[in-house]
Hints:
Layout: E1 2-6, H1 11-21, E2 27-32, H2 38-43, E3 47-50, H3 57-61, E4 69-72, H4 82-103, E5 107-111, H5 118-123, H6 129-143, E6 148-154, E7 156-158, E8 165-169, E9 176-178, H7 179-191, E10 198-204, E11 207-208, H8 209-214
Parallel strand pairs: 1-2, 1-4, 2-3, 4-5, 5-6, 6-10, 7-9
Antiparallel strand pairs: 8-10, 8-11
Amino acid sequence: MKVLVVGANGQVGKHLVKFIQETDDMEAKAMIRKEEQASYFKDLGAEPVIVDLEDDPENVAKAFDGVDAVVFTAGSGPNTGPDKTMMIDLDAAVKTIEAAKSKGVKRYVMVSSFDTTREAIQSAPESFAPYVAAKHYADDWLRRTDLDYTIVHPGGLTNDEGNGKVEAAETVARGEIAREDVARVLLETLKNKSTTGKEFQVVSGSTSIEDALKSL
């Protein structure tokens, strides 16, 4: 299986590409924005592809040639304004969903925010509400497709070393999770076909990732 990782140069994306390359039956195609980011992925044996997610949909879709699945883990980042949030977390997400449809890539895994319900938008701090709203509508766009999707809602992200133990369910108590473990969850999601058509929240816990996803 060849997996296109959108946002591969992010912290979760880098972990995911590395984990994919360590498997026997998957390989990663790393979507990045700058040529100088390519060497990291080449050293892992992954295929880098340089795409600006704010480019026109046709150019974005070219990256989907020859892939079997896509993981969207891109984000505008914490230091940008609502304009970039709209362009990356919503518009770029929709462009990749539409690209998957046009290129016949059925498997699509979305990394979302922990809670993207309408209630979460209304209760979010003013500075955070545009991000939650963008994720809300990107998730909704994906749900309305016929793609084999999974939407992953991780808790607060940390740079702690992962331990492969999580709590995952449709709803869980708010908590934190290491970015490394989010990447492991994404890898297991790709492996586990029973996650198709589902979405779940995930935080650090006491259950192995494989078992936690099996119980969804």
